[in-house]
Amino acid sequence: MFRNFLTVALRNIAKHKVFTLINVVGLSLGMAIFFLLTGYVRFENSYDTIHQRSENIYRVESIFYKGGEKTDDWAGSTNGYGPAMKANFPEVESFTRINWNSSTRVVRYQDTKFREQNVCFADSNFFTFFSYPVLKGNPQTFLNAPNTVVISEKAAHKYFGKEEPMGKFLDISTISKTYRCQVSGVFKDLPINSSLQFDMLMSWTTSPEWVRNFWYQHSSYTYIRVQPNTNIANLAAKFPALAEKYKTADAMKEHKWAVDLVPLHAIHLNPAKTNEPETKGSRTTVQFLLIAGIIILTYWQGKLYQSIYSKSY
Question: Model-level pTM?
Answer without folding.
Answer: 0.85
